[in-house]
Fold each of these.
Amino acid sequence: MGFKEEIQSGNFVVTAEVGPPKGTDISEMKHHIKGLKGKVTALNVTDNQSAVMRICTLAVAKEIMDIGIEPIYQMTCRDRNRLGLQSDLLGAAIMGIKNVLALTGDHPVLGDHKDAKPVFDIESVQLLEVINGLNEGRDMAGLELQGATDLFAGAIVTPESNPLEPQFAKFEKKVSAGAKFFQTQAIYDMPKFMKFMERAKAHDVPILAGILLLKSAGMAKYLNKFVAGVSVPQELIDELTPFKGEDALKKGIEIAGRQIAELKEVCAGVHVMAIGAEDRVPDILAAAGL
Amino acid sequence: MIVAEPKSLDEIKAMVDAYDRVLMVGCGTCVEVCLTGGERAVNLTATALRLARKVDGRDIEVGEQTVIRQCDFEYLDEVRDADEYQAIVSLACGVGIQGIARKFPNTPVFPGVNTTFMGFNEEYGYYTEMCKGCGECILHLTGGVCPVARCAKSLLNGPCGGTNNGKCEIGGDKDCGWVLIYNKMEQLGTLDKFKEINQPKNYGKAGNIRSMDIRK
């Protein structure tokens, strides 16, 4: 069964993600992807993640498929206008890509080409509607396609966003716009997330909780300071503080495993973000008892 | 009103490096209010330019004039003796600078300011961008707060994941436009509208050599 079928039949799914490198040497990336084969239901491929220029998503999605994993093609609206987005979606479809994650994308000022002209011709909610249109055989101009797509579209939500209300309203818009699954930003505040899930239940859409591997106490503090919508509780920072290097990573893996075990009860799956430590994803899943 | 910021003296000096007689023309409307391009700004900039050139040992004559508006031939007719100068530096917005350039087609015209945005005077000396001139106003859908101008990504359907305690992900302590919109619509009791999906904008109206003819 593929990602769509697994998720729609209510099976617990595990996704991870791979960030394409900047440059043409993909040996390490391929090593990471190979290590995830058979361990994840599908693998996200990020789109110029954090507004940093890297290999294009479609090319890496092809590598993932060649290795034998189903990709989730992340598409942001930052770098392409409506023509570019739609033509890439058609390209994805003929390449055999089945899943798309519709994102707005980080602003270029956060990345490594700060002077770039941001596009944002459309945004995540509208992109979801565009994908629906392509699936129904028409483009944004209302013109008929010579062959429709059959893409399974998802979106993201930030349950720890502050304030939550506007974010929740946007989540509801994404559901109305046709998001068939959600992957969340990193979850650390369990009580807050449980409350979010309680409210989200009414929409009956599968939600994969985001697990971001903490590699050290320093990283946790960095996330709190610089990454919007992520708040690592002090208890976790304290738990990591005594450890350094590989020991800290092991502790982080233990924490991630514990979080997954806890979230397993309330979520349709988990989305594991290991950021450069993709080879340790199997360890995280083992720590979670999966 | 239109807001502009002064170009650096070094940049202006480099632009007019080849000339010894330059006319500096201010504009008495928008850019006068933000103290960038009115009579006083012309005087300060001209004086600084003269001093800088004196330091280089190459005196420059800088004429000073300010008209009510540079975006209208009616007022540009008031610019005097332009033919006595080798070049003109305009401290008007980009519209006015081009007005001067059209009025005096044989004289090189240089910009003395960077035109930045259409803004609101928040308090003395502090302006914020409020309108992008998109040509398709949707303020009735967003509680009177413009997402095109006040969201860094011009999003139309709510905040992105980068919104952080009411601030924008681009930093600089800028407010998240969508949190402002949400709060305003909550105050107005129109959150039901917030939940409606806004369709992609017609960006054809936002650009492409626009004009308007009210004679028709």
Note: Chain B touches chain A through 30 residues (CB under 8 Å).
Amino acid sequence: MYPDDLKYSSEHEWARVGDGDVAEVGITNFAQDTLGDVVFVELPEIGSKVDQFDKFGEIESVKAVSDLFSPVSGTVTAVNEELEQSPELVNSDPYGDGWIMEVQLDDPSELDELMDSQTYQGTLE
Amino acid sequence: MSDGVVPNASVADMHDRRLLMDRSVSGRRAIEMPTADVPLAEMPNDDLLRDADDLQLPEMSQPDVIRYFTLLSRLNFSIDTNFYPLGSCTMKYNPKLNDQVASMGGFANIHPLQTDDSVQGALEVMFELQQWLGEATALPGVGLAPLAGAQGEYAGLLIARAALEMRGESHRNVALIPDSAHGTNPASAAMAGLDVVTVKTDEFGNVDVEDLRAKADENACVFMLTIPSTLGLFEPNIIEINNIIHDAGGLVYADGANLNALLGLVKLGDLGVDICHSNLHKTFSTPHGGGGPGAGPVMVTEELASFLPEPVVVKSDGDVPSPARRERARVRAQQYHLTRPDNSIGKINGFHGSFSILVRAYTYMQSLGGDGLRAVSENALINANYIQARLRDRFDLAVDRLCMHETVLSGKRQADRGVPALSIAKRLLDYGIHAPTMYFPLIVPEALMVEPTETESKETLDRFVAVMQVIDDEIDNDPDTVNHAPHTLPNTRLDEATAARRPVLRWQAEKD
Amino acid sequence: MTSKADTTHPFIPNTASERAQMLATIGVEDFDALITDIPEQHRNSSLRLPDAASELEVATRMQALAALNQDAGTRPSFLGAGAYHHFIPSTVGAILQRGEFVTSYTPYQPEAAQGVLQSGFEFQSAVAQIFGMEVANAGMYDGPTAFAEAGLMAARVSRRNRILILDTADKRLFEVAEAYARYQQVEIEAISRESVLNGDIPDDAACIAFQSPNFLGRIEDVQALTDAAHAAGALSVMHTYPTALGMFKSPGEFGVDIATAEGQPLGVPLTFGGAYVGLFTTKQRFIRQLPGRIIGRTSDTLGRTGYTLTLQTREQHIRRERATSNICTSTQLIGLMVAVYCATMGPSGLRKVAELSYHKAHYVANAIGALPGWSVFGGTGTFFNEFAVECPIAPRSVNRLLAERGIIGGLDVSDVVPNGMLLCVTEMNSRQDIDRLVDALSDIGNGGAA
């Protein structure tokens, strides 16, 4: 439910840092479950700047709309265009095909501000 | 059995949901237009003209047009066919006389830009309606222009801003709004450039006066109060609240969505309210029409009357002929005029308001009279409290006290047993009763807001109570049936997620 | 049994004895116990209104008031300028008698409102077709408010804040747009056709918004205006007259981004200016910025087709202060009238109405142009069914003299055209009416007062 290789924010986003200083970003299983059927994800523009814990987009279910907050600061290098046709991927595979954006990190040390899986799960209880 | 052949007369055609274009047959037509009785003019340049086959509208015979739309009408719940206890919507009986009057040629066929002297009857209707709404609210400045409640709200906020600007207080940019408010309140406030500050509701369902006091500062422009509140409660501290706002230099705006609770019982202006609107399609019985048209006149104090939206009807002071000479009206001096108030916020729509709705409301007020309107509110209150009293052993109340014209139940106990408020609402449809307003106000878990109105009889209310009890029993005995309701309507539950993910918003030819 | 004295009013069923029983069930002694939260000094303030009147009395009085109005149903009218007297087929009134439509609410429970939803989907389909646009919403309050919302939507889409309105548009459109935008951090400005066509458009222009046919009835060069808007990175917003689209090219064919109109000409009586319905159309890619209600097609749990309100997260009841608009209504019942009108008229009927209006208007213009002292304003530009004439005397006086002859004249536009009167001709004006008008104007021009 909450993979160990991810870092989590209190706003229920996750970041996965792979090679180099690029992080993949999405919303957690808890977030997708709370929202219900996701019908639309407003994606940021490639090349735009995002700041840690600031709004970068919106996510909509049938009868709710929520802000998306970036867990990291940096420049958007890719967005998941699959979500335009199939926003339900956020529900079915929040950590895989339901990723939202990729960010070139400004400052990798920011990741220390995020939680590990166990700490995050603790906040859900 | 082949498609569409079902041995049940009442549903035979209910499942034939093909659209007009799917039924269209080239060469059919439902109307014949006359040929030109003037010499034909030269046609404009070809590059301006539309190709004849570009306009893909249905080609239907006249009987098929009538049968199609009549079929659609039968797929609907309505006041004329069902009990419709939809909270805060005031789904009362819509008297047929109102529709008949609105369709009279002298009202239906007058043009909004005719000279005032040629529409004196229409202007008299508007003038009297202004007077009567002013009397009902003790707010004598009345503007009939707003086309719906949300426009009335917006007009009211523009008036508040304009009045404060004239006092040299244009910095006031905060709208204080209770957390129980309808969504149009913050949406209208945002349109009027106001920042929304939310005020808490206390445990009794009242405005948290201390929270309000703390937030009503030098930036307060307006406090938007729904009265009775969306919890169906009259705010007992209203005078203190209004004083707090006035002392802070702001104005009090009352959302009149629930005026059906107050007629002849109390007048908003007497309580210190500065501005309010009234949804004529609620309290004054004009039909909801499946989602409009409405009318949302705005009422203000004498002091604010000069800011009303254009136009307002005034009566000339001069030599006024007596009513006995009305038959000689065509030659009488013009009495009523459309005017723009001195400091008007301007035009918020094309013409003079929803005249066809205004004329219905005026007709309704004549049918009821002063005492009748009070009887409306009295009966609305009794009916709501009766339902509350009879259901309180089965359903939690949002707030345990007597209510006004509507009661807010909470389906918490039922949700704990596995059936959310949504399913109770859907199951009611199977019993031929429209669902209450669900999940509103937002501060009540599993809210079911029930407004019976005064036009329902005790038998209807008793049946509603019995059905709610049956559903409550079903939750124990057969929760699946409730959770998958409705079962008896033209459609079962609809896939709203797919509708929003891949929107199909109009007819399109089938792709081969 | 209920005694006569026990009843209240025809619209209120419960009798005094039933109310007493109900109060007992509630557990209170009398009605006053229900309203103790109302401050005592203001409680029971009686309404100083006339007493209740019977249906017969009210109908009689209202008929008398209606008779005080001079209506276009009983005399020829040549007044347009945003509201138009067109033929309404009998089917519209017949369907409008259906209480199942008239007395239903906004379709929040789609399973119990498929009639409203499917007919609204028909409305969206017909409007999108007529406009040649990809999508239409379920309806706005009226034409001018639709136009105002189009400007605001253009600002959201373009993320720019200057709404430029061509100065040939009706001033009502400016005024309403201004009232809608007053506190929205957008500027509303007029711009001339020359500036637009010369590319003299500010960098922060959200849209070029124009009316065609314009206020004086002339067809604008929609393609050139749209191309100029796009070249400046702005949207093209067009306000039009839907009947004209029965013969003139649609906004969609020119690449217009948002097109709006007053829906009243499509089957809705004049009714002194309301209730009408605003038509609002745009391109598919902008749908999440649309104001107002939208109906979508979907399926139910058994796989059957059904309809529901969709994209609701744009709206006030969910997004609250961040909604695309505060509008709740879709003016659904008036939209139903439009849907029935379009189904009845079909493609050939709508075209016929447009052509009849066009030919009759040109016949009138030619006839008036030939009268000594009168001239048609605006030279050779194409018009549909409205045009301005320059009168030999003040238009107000012309209208008074026409009224004496039982004719409703045109709109006084002397603030725009010297001694100008804007005339409108539709299929409702018979040749006989037209000849009466022309004879009367001839007389008036000759100084014949009566």
Note: Chain C touches chain A at residues 288, 312-313, 318-319 (CB under 8 Å).
